[in-house]
Design a protein that fits this description.
single chain; about 220 residues; alpha/beta; 5-stranded mixed β-sheet; two-stranded parallel sheet; 7 strands; globular
Length: about 220
């Protein structure tokens, strides 16, 4: 879990630990990573970002857009062979002093596509954008939200679908190739806008008439 000391990263980590997974919490600061791991408990351990990804089969990036590129550059030489990168980045305008509920247009098309360019050879799946940190932190409550997945590797999406299913209430839905990640990122900005408008913190999305998991 790269950026695992933040609210989103810690929330996902706690959910996966609760489901029985071993989660390596990564941070630029080893001290902060160790503190987060101790707070989460269970099978959570603290590491620097580079050490966290060295033996992980799934690397989940949970950092703001402003830190995405530098973080990926710092770990791409340490990512284990065969690992999958899950990118949760939402390119919000607030990164350049704009509005929290607006997205930026990136040269690569989306934050996930930017991630794929920065870690060539590593399959990238865009996922978990719509799962709010506040909902994740309520460990005794299921999450009423679907998790849309985009990626160009069917195998990688199938593995991330299984990971998403470890969180009670979450249903993974195959949303197509990585090129569609911009739509997921924009949907996350829409949820932020709804939260602000209705003064809530846990809005989510459900889709009807669709099967769960990767497309057969």
């Amino acid at each position: 879990m790269v950026g695992g000391t933040g609210a989103e990263g810690s929330g996902l980590a706690a959910r996966f630990v609760l489901a029985g997974a071993h989660v390596r919490i990564g941070s630029r600061s080893l001290e902060r990573a160790l503190e987060a791991a101790q707070r989460i408990g269970g099978n959570a351990t603290g590491h620097t970002n580079a050490d966290a990804v060295a033996t992980a089969s799934i690397v989940i990036l949970t950092v703001p857009l402003s830190a995405q590129a530098d973080t990926l550059k710092s770990i791409r030489g340490s990512i284990a062979a065969g690992a999958i990168l899950v990118d949760t980045t939402v390119p919000l305008e607030v990164a350049i002093g704009g509005r929290l509920s607006r997205t930026l247009t990136l040269w690569d098309g989306s934050a996930a596509q930017q991630a794929a360019r920065l870690v060539p050879g590593v399959p990238v799946v865009a996922a978990f954008h719509a799962l709010s940190a506040e909902a994740l932190a309520k460990l005794d409550h299921p999450i009423d939200c679907d998790a849309l997945l985009c990626g160009d590797s069917a195998e990688a999406k199938a593995i991330v679908s299984e990971l998403a299913a470890m969180i009670p209430g979450v249903r993974a839905i195959d949303a197509g190739p990585l090129d569609n990640a911009r739509l997921l990122e924009s949907a996350a900005a829409l949820l932020i806008s709804l939260n602000l408008r209705h003064k809530v913190r846990e809005s989510g999305m459900r889709f009807t008439g669709l099967p769960s998991g990767p497309k057969k």
